[in-house]
Amino acid sequence: MAVRVAIAGASGYAGGEALRLLLAHPGVEIGALTGNSNAGQRLGTLQPHLLPLADRVLAPTTPEALSGHDVVFLALPHGQSAAVAEQLGPDVLVIDMGADFRLKDPADWERFYGSAHAGTWPYGLPELPGGRAALEGSKRIAVPGCYPTAASLALVPAYAAGLVENEAVVVAASGTSGAGKAPKAHLLGSEVMGSMSPYGVGGGHRHTPEMMQNLGAAAGEPVTVSFTPTLAPMPRGILATCSAKAREGVGAESVRAAYEKAYADEPFVRLLPEGQWPATGAVYGSNAVQIQVAYDPAAHRVIAISALDNLTKGTAGGAVQSMNIALGLDESTGLSTIGVAP
Ligand SMILES: NC(=O)C1=CN([C@@H]2O[C@H](COP(=O)(O)OP(=O)(O)OC[C@H]3O[C@@H](n4cnc5c(N)ncnc54)[C@H](OP(=O)(O)O)[C@@H]3O)[C@@H](O)[C@H]2O)C=CC1
Ligand SMILES: CC(=O)N[C@@H](CCC(=O)OP(=O)(O)O)C(=O)O
């Protein structure tokens, strides 16, 4: 029998991507769709690419609208999920695509988000060590941020295998949809098109503690991360270039072997053949992640590069993958590794 799914925040980018994927999921029936300022609008005017749902009208995001579902996806701004989630029963699978329940340390949350910490839920990145076990049968899932997904998949194998020192550098370029649909001054079309620019430089980006949490868990000791995000003139995609100093005795062969072992059986993570490099264009609209790793003998550093679609594996695809595990379905149901090109 199909599970009945509601989407809160169906007018936004993350909610829209969840709907795009769930429309192709054979085990799902799409129930309530809610919005905030766009409640009362037809979905067809807000998400014209979701043709089968064009005549559905958005309800306001209320407990009444979201009740009576097996699964509720929350695609709301930071800080809005906790109040909605606590109105949903313990038997409902609640999947938060926002940040509210990702961090374990309340001090990290307060420092980077500036409000009281709502709590910590099982983390929706199955590829982490122990990641699947944490999701099986769970009724609450915190979907990772898009940059932490990219950086963690790039560097966790190196930390889990003890290949690198505990200071990582991550420089990542993101497409503009990462910033959401609401208008923002730094996202004016004429200024973004044809230009790349950094932001959140100097340790200020809120995804930094999330990366440190994931890499520290893999290493078994604290890892610091220097993270610099950049905005790239493309709608979707993240290319994360990550590096850390290699430990004594580490070389190209041991690095390659660790990554081959880590990703041999992963359905969505593809370690590319040597000499081929990840590209955002190759994972557009798919749940796949491309990874390549290299050892730089002069700098004695491990360089790991990942490419993913921020809205798919970086948000809604990761959410559906985690939902599948929580419900005991095949993890890949409704998800594709086939991109769109050119
Ligand atoms: N975009 C991305 O690549 C990623 C996004 N996420 C997370 O997903 C969540 C949604 O992001 P995204 O879709 O990009 O953002 P959008 O701005 O595109 O969408 C936000 C959604 O939240 C609704 N909303 C706005 N304010 C409120 C409120 N006060 N109460 C209830 N609903 C509200 C909006 O409704 P309406 O339009 O009707 O006002 C809209 O449906 C965020 O937490 C974001 O961090 C996570 C990873 C990556
Ligand atoms: C390009 C861009 O602006 N990206 C967003 C990250 C999007 C994401 O993953 O988000 P959440 O933590 O908000 O869920 C940013 O840097 O704020």
Automatic annotation (TrEMBL):
It is found in: Cytoplasm. Its EC number is 1.2.1.38. Residues 4-136 form the Semialdehyde dehydrogenase NAD-binding domain. InterPro entries: AGPR, AGPR_AS, AGPR_dimerisation_dom, AGPR_type-1, NAD(P)-bd_dom_sf, Semialdehyde_DH_NAD-bd. It holds the Pfam family Semialdhyde_dhC_1. The keyword Amino-acid biosynthesis applies. The keyword RNA-binding does not apply. Pathway: Amino-acid biosynthesis; L-arginine biosynthesis; N(2)-acetyl-L-ornithine from L-glutamate: step 3/4. The active site is at C146. It is an enzyme of class 1 (oxidoreductase). It catalyses: N-acetyl-L-glutamate 5-semialdehyde + phosphate + NADP(+) = N-acetyl-L-glutamyl 5-phosphate + NADPH + H(+). Its main location: cytoplasm. Belongs to the NAGSA dehydrogenase family. Type 1 subfamily. PANTHER family: N-ACETYL-GAMMA-GLUTAMYL-PHOSPHATE REDUCTASE, CHLOROPLASTIC-RELATED, N-ACETYL-GAMMA-GLUTAMYL-PHOSPHATE REDUCTASE, CHLOROPLASTIC-RELATED-RELATED. Catalyzes the NADPH-dependent reduction of N-acetyl-5-glutamyl phosphate to yield N-acetyl-L-glutamate 5-semialdehyde. This is N-acetyl-gamma-glutamyl-phosphate reductase. The lineage of its organism: Bacteria, Bacillati, Actinomycetota, Actinomycetes, Kitasatosporales.
